[in-house]
Amino acid sequence: MKKIHIIGLGLLGGSFGLAAAKKFPDILISGSDADEKNLQDAINLGIIQEAKDAPDADTDIVILATPADTLNDLLLKTLDQVGENTLVFDVGSTKAKLCALVAEHPKRKQYLAAHPIAGTEYSGPKAAFGDLLDRKVMIICELEQTDLGLKEKAYELFDALNLKLRFMDPEEHDRHLAFVSHLSHISSFMLGKTVLQKMEDEKNIFDMAGSGFASTVRLAKSSPAMWAPILTENKDNILTALDGYISNLSAFREKIAASDGSGLSDEMTEVNKIRDILDLEK
Amino acid sequence: MKKIHIIGLGLLGGSFGLAAAKKFPDILISGSDADEKNLQDAINLGIIQEAKDAPDADTDIVILATPADTLNDLLLKTLDQVGENTLVFDVGSTKAKLCALVAEHPKRKQYLAAHPIAGTEYSGPKAAFGDLLDRKVMIICELEQTDLGLKEKAYELFDALNLKLRFMDPEEHDRHLAFVSHLSHISSFMLGKTVLQKMEDEKNIFDMAGSGFASTVRLAKSSPAMWAPILTENKDNILTALDGYISNLSAFREKIAASDGSGLSDEMTEVNKIRDILDLEK
């Protein structure tokens, strides 16, 4: 592992850079960002050593870490640029469209569809930190489509970063993520909105907000530049998840309206099952 | 401060006991719980020193910490039992009905309506810990209705526990809490339900759940025995909050369905204001 090039130097791209620099002290990391300020920050923070518009021909790995709606064009352009011993992987939150886009591409074998389940509500190079990826799940799609030798390069990096690999097909990935990630962000943003609307009348509402509110509304701090594209790229799956959520909320509302205490209690007891599942997994 | 009696020895009642015992080493703390196992746990954990069905006549403070739907009867019964130098306060999440109930009560001056903004998703005596209340906000309603001398006893306890007092009328309290606490619990329970329904088909979904999902769904671990009564006791305010939430979700859904990326981005940018507010308050 001698050269990595990172396109998009925000929270995820930046954290890959910091972690790789720590694990491979002799590595040369270059990169680019559409935002000049981000690029300068990334150099100052040691995320990359060199700003470069395109990867060198002998680059081992190119990481694409830009918003979901830019990845289609970027992936095609990058595959055109790279030498034959370069692996390209993206870290986007949706995988089906990207995999379909390059299914017949002559350089398909140089691409790996990846998605690390890691993030915070903050964004940009200054939000990046070397431990963000440590022991996180990394989902890989269509592994069999990637060249064996190039996969070895990816494993070398992923193992060094302590990523836990999981494998699934891209449609399955997008369906799942709509439920366990994208829906959480929508519920949080709309909760924030509902309380902010209320606050226009009543000023001290946040004085009374406890840790429960802070926890449920945390994701409403997330970057719209990152999230708007995810919501539209994974539209169909997200609408299914969101419709289920709204329908559950409406049915629960009726139980409250009917003062159906035992119905509410039964329903919440059923959902309490999530205790076991979360405590097991985390 | 010589004697405290706590009725309901769960997360909140138990934490009051542990904190008071630490701050007032010579204090005698008695208490009761409808659940025999909880009562025994509370003694074993040092939350109370003595199980007692009713407070002694010379008890300084009685704390009512049972589920919201039991507080009405319990408050009336307790006011009948206590001596004239005893202050009674409850720690329930709804305040308007309780205050109305005792508005004309001959012992109204011996009651203080209180609500500490403190909790976790766990319940029962074993979930209690002495620092739960440390530096948390304690909302007091209708302060002017409580006897001056008895208020001094309450201040002595609240100051020792580092509670930060806030004052408001009970209707305002209930309206606010519907938005910043009760709605968060509903959104979290229904998120958990929506994902659990999905999981019936697809087993590995929780493998892919990151910290964002864990954060938004954390409150779905909460106790139904505590929450069902809150939802029905504060029904009108909660329906207002929940209707606003469902309406915001539905409008957001339409923007996703229309692939309105810039509309979604604008709306999320607006909600990002919550960053400043939360970072300021916490």
UniProtKB/TrEMBL annotation, chains A, B:
Pfam families: PDH_C, PDH_N. GO terms for biological process: tyrosine biosynthetic process. The keyword Oxidoreductase applies. SUPFAM superfamilies: 6-phosphogluconate dehydrogenase C-terminal domain-like, NAD(P)-binding Rossmann-fold domains. Residues 2-282 form the Prephenate/arogenate dehydrogenase domain. Keywords: Oxidoreductase. GO terms for molecular function: NAD+ binding; prephenate dehydrogenase (NAD+) activity; prephenate dehydrogenase (NADP+) activity. NCBIfam families: PRK08507.1. This is Prephenate dehydrogenase.
